[in-house]
């Protein structure tokens, strides 16, 4: 079994999504002064490679601790959808793969945008999922939708409601890395921290390849 890390590293001071809390990772105790190292971390729950709970946009939706563990692990399919800055990810892009987009499926799409991580335009110019495409994915009742963009769409309110709403409850995994290094099919693992009653969490996303 080969393991491929799909997670962006988290470094002190790196940019966060606009209006989100910045990431700070500072020494709090040190071997020199205290005989051990311990760090103080502050961040938003949607920093870097992370997943959304339904509660992120749906007030009575499932929180992280209410989501079954099996939602975060299992066979996944990668769709290669190369896109340039500000291009749309459309219904037609997914309809070409409709044999894979079945109830319970874990679908990940690679646009190539993961290569822009850390660049000034990463949070502004990402390829954007259309509302029509999101509605189609929700209607197919897939289990998980992963992507290499920092968020699915510039229509963030409408698209998140389509994907996270009670009729779909799709696990949305954002900010994946290294999708160009994985085969089209693999076992996905991406477990969140067990925040009680909260809306999302960073994850350590991993592709497990035979």
Instruction: Describe the main β-sheet briefly.
Output: 9 strands, mixed
Structural class: alpha/beta
Number of helices: 4
Question: What is the quaternary state of this protein?
Answer: single chain
Tell me, rounded to a whole number, the average pLDDT: 98
Shape label: globular
- Strand elements, count: 13
Portion of residues in beta strands equals: 25-35%
Task: Give the N-to-C terminal Cα separation.
Answer: 5 Å
How much helix, percentage-wise, in residues? 10-25%
- Using the CA coordinates, give the radius of gyration: 17 Å
**Major β-sheet strand ordering:** 1-13-11-5-7-9-10-4-12
SSE sequence, one letter per element: EEHEEEEHEEHEHEEEE
Low-confidence stretches: none
Structure in words:
With 210 residues, the protein is an alpha/beta fold. 13% of the residues lie in helices and 26% in strands. It is built from 4 helices and 13 strands. It has helices at 31-34, 91-95, 131-139, 156-164; strands spanning 2-5, 24-29, 38-42, 50-52, 73-80, 88-89, 106-110, 128-129, 144-147, 171-174, 185-189, 200-202, 206-209. The strands form 3 sheets. The chain has a 9-stranded mixed beta sheet, with no helix packed on it. The protein has a two-stranded antiparallel ribbon with strand order 2-3. A two-stranded parallel sheet has the order 6-8. Strand 9, helix 4 (156-164) and strand 10 (171-174) form a beta-alpha-beta unit. Helix 3 (131-139) runs parallel beside helix 4. The longest helix has 9 residues, at 131-139. The chain is globular, with a radius of gyration of 17 Å.
């Amino acid at each position: 079994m080969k393991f491929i890390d799909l997670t962006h590293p988290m470094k002190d001071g790196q940019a966060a999504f606009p209006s989100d809390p910045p990431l700070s990772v500072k020494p709090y105790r040190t071997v020199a002064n205290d005989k051990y190292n311990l760090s103080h971390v502050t961040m938003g729950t949607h920093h870097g490679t992370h997943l959304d709970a339904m509660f992120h946009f749906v007030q009575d939706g499932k929180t992280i601790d209410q989501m079954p563990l099996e939602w975060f692990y299992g066979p996944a399919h990668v769709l290669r959808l190369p896109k340039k800055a500000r291009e749309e990810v459309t219904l037609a892009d997914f309809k070409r793969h409709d044999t894979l987009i079945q109830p319970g499926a874990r679908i990940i799409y690679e646009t190539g945008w993961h290569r822009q991580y850390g660049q000034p335009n990463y949070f502004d110019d990402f390829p954007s999922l259309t509302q029509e495409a999101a509605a189609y994915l929700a209607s197919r009742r897939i289990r998980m939708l992963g992507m290499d963009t920092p968020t699915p769409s510039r229509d963030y309110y409408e698209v998140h409601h389509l994907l996270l709403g009670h009729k779909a409850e799709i696990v949305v995994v954002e900010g994946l890395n290294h999708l160009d290094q994985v085969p089209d099919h693999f076992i996905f693992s991406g477990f969140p921290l067990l925040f009680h009653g909260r809306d999302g969490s960073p994850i350590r996303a991993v592709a497990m390849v035979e």
